[in-house]
Amino acid sequence: MPCATTPISTSSCCTRRCPARPLVVNVCNFSKPPEGQPALLSLDEANTLFHEFGHAVHGILANGTYASLSGTSVPRDFVEFPSQMMENWALAPEFLPTYARHHETGEPIPAELVRKLEQAKKFNQGFATTEYLAASLLDMNWHTLRDNTAQDPLAFEARVLERIGLIPQILPRYRTPYFAHIFSGGYSAGYYSYIWAEVLDADAFEAFREKGLFHPELARSYRENILERGNSEPPMELYRRFRGADPKIEPLLKRRGLDGD
To answer: Per-residue pLDDT for 14 more than 50?
Structure first.
């Protein structure tokens, strides 16, 4: 991970009934510039910065009574929603020129280059989506296994991949022997959470595309219904309150270039 978000304290001081100001730090290890040169961020690093700042905002705007239910203390398949939501602004044409400027001339990034960056994001998405979903289904199969007898890991994996119809040209993103996420990384039966959070953030950002990236009322609703509430209410109830409906998959398919258009 190029960055990490560390909540030092969040929510309210429930024992003394007094407010506590959330303190959150983004710690990054971006590329060190050559001696005498300015520190510049690559596109990937800028995107990571927006992502981790999304976690930070989730903690900073926490407005709850108990730390265990505030800020990023939410279910794993919801915690990446606010962080991935922030990534949408990183390359938004309306916002990108406000920070992406030439370090010598101050000129904003050319619109044509922004268009190419948007197009490049769709490259190879069929492969990337398939290998990820294959790993997610493999994870789910391992963690819903009811047979307690010893399993041959690769034989079990092969049966799962054949059952889901994965073509031989594509392998799951992580093979069973080194799938650390699901055996020692805390993602047991939850590796799907990354793409579920993408469904949420793509659908939620569609609201900002419809009303404006800086629409104050919509931003206030997002803050009050998502960022402030933590895990004080079921996440999907909070989402429906913000969006007015269940999330749709179409915005994510469109973003990835998999909508057929």
So the answer is: no
